[in-house]
């Protein structure tokens, strides 16, 4: 389904070294896995080493995808939520060990959830359910007030008994929704306003927003931004943007941030070691804490901890499958490397396709 190397200027490299065109690498893999479009970029610190994009924004339409297009990050949105939490910890507005009944003092919280700490929420050790029920998701997706809908959903879920004891590993989107509401209470701002003020505006992430890209301020023409795609009745089809409940704007703290690869890399760069004296997203101790497993697994706050010889002693990884989009990132802090990949589809074999691309990139750039 992917068609040729698509157009769209990416960010300029900060040195005179040529930027590798990776579009031809993507084309056969995207075609083999019948993906609408796929995009990738590789950075070493602020230098763009290579980038490429192939395919179309929407099946049935010939409009080519672009490197400047925004892609839904899915679970990779969680790293932004975790970073915002670290910022508020640095300011004394939160503490890693603050329990839920103190984070959300006005909520009616079941005793099995009351002492879940901020760090348990961050590192998926809250014991909470993975996702809200389908009916609640649909209600949230239909809301015109994402913050209010998110708060109502979180308050409803927190009043119920937790399915597992606190401290138990259980990957949880609900935990990050609760965390998003806690950030709102601590900051006095909506999650969306906080992300804009602390991340998107200061980092120059002008392509970023919340929810399906094609849903935000409906563009002209209709295919000015990528559509998500999912399998329906055995065929891959473009999704109606308003029907994508898992990436509704209210799900921003856990799964629905969208942005271009270049803007995503601007954020991720803040998680690499930074020379003394340069501005950081959060304090070095707080960032180190985000990157370190606090419990008995490799899961950290917003990433997973992946030892790998190609990247040095530490690799940070996250991928997000959101039902209609896919995104993946790898960070090698000791080498200053950032790999970002996005697809406007979610299929049963999407991770295999991504891994084929990433393995080639690791061999080529992580020398």
Give me the secondary-structure topology.
Elements: E1 20-21, H1 23-32, E2 37-44, E3 47-55, E4 71-72, H2 78-90, H3 100-103, H4 118-122, H5 134-142, H6 146-158, H7 173-187, H8 191-200, E5 209-210, E6 229-232, E7 235-238, E8 257-259, H9 261-269, H10 284-291, E9 304-305, E10 316-321, E11 326-332, E12 337-343, H11 350-365
Parallel strand pairs: 1-3
Antiparallel strand pairs: 2-3, 2-12, 4-8, 5-8, 6-7, 9-10, 10-11, 11-12
Helix pairs in contact: 2-7, 5-6, 6-7
Number of domains: 2
Helix fraction, binned, reads 25-40%
The percent range for strand residues is: 15-25%
Radius of gyration: 20 Å
N/C terminus separation: 33 Å
Provide the CATH topology of the largest domain.
Beta-lactamase
Give a concise summary.
The protein is α+β, with helices and mostly antiparallel strands.
Please provide a written account of the structure.
With 367 residues, the protein is α+β, with helices and mostly antiparallel strands. The chain folds into two domains: 20-77 and 207-365, DD-peptidase/beta-lactamase superfamily (Beta-lactamase, 3-Layer(aba) Sandwich); 93-194. The chain has helices at 23-32, 78-90, 100-103, 118-122, 134-142, 146-158, 173-187, 191-200, 261-269, 284-291, 350-365; strands at 20-21, 37-44, 47-55, 71-72, 209-210, 229-232, 235-238, 257-259, 304-305, 316-321, 326-332, 337-343. A seven-stranded mixed sheet has the order 1-3-2-12-11-10-9, sandwiched between helices. Strand 6 (229-232) and strand 7 (235-238) form a beta hairpin. The longest helix is centred in the C-terminal third of the chain and has 16 residues, at 350-365. It is globular and about 55 Å long. Mean pLDDT is 90; it is low at 3-14.
């Amino acid at each position: 389904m992917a068609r040729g190397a698509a157009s769209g200027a990416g960010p300029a490299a900060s040195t005179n070294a040529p930027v590798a065109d990776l579009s031809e690498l993507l084309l056969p893999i995207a075609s083999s896995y019948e993906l609408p479009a796929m995009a990738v970029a590789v950075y070493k610190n602020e230098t763009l080493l290579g980038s490429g994009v192939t395919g179309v924004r929407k099946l049935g339409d010939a409009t080519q995808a672009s490197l400047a297009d925004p892609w839904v990050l899915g679970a990779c949105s969680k790293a932004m939520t975790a970073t915002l939490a670290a910022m508020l910890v640095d300011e004394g507005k939160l503490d890693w060990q603050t329990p839920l009944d103190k984070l959300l003092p006005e909520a009616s919280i079941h005793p099995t959830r009351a002492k879940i700490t901020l760090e348990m929420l961050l590192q998926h050790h809250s014991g909470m359910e993975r996702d809200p029920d389908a009916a609640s998701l649909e209600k949230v997706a239909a809301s015109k007030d994402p913050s209010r809908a998110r708060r109502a959903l979180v308050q409803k879920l927190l009043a119920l008994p937790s399915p597992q004891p606190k401290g138990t590993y259980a990957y949880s989107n609900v935990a990050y929704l609760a965390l998003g509401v806690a950030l709102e209470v601590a900051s006095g701002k909506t999650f969306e306003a906080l992300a804009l003020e602390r991340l998107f505006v200061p980092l120059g992430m002008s392509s970023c927003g919340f929810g399906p890209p094609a849903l935000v301020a409906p563009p002209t023409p209709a295919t000015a931004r990528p559509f998500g795609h999912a399998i329906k009745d055995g065929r891959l089809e473009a999704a109606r943007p308003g029907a994508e409940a898992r990436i509704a704007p209210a799900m921003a703290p856990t799964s629905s941030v969208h942005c271009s690869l270049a803007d995503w890399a601007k954020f991720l760069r803040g998680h690499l070691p930074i020379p003394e004296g340069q501005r950081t997203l959060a304090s070095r101790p707080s960032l180190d804490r985000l990157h370190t497993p606090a419990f008995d697994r490799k899961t950290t706050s917003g990433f997973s901890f992946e030892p790998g010889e190609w990247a040095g002693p530490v690799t940070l990884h996250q991928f997000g499958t959101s039902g209609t989009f896919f995104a993946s990132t790898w960070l090698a802090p000791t080498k200053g490397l950032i790999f970002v990949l996005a697809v406007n589809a979610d299929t049963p074999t999407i991770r295999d396709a991504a891994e084929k691309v990433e393995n080639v990139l690791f061999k080529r750039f992580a020398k």
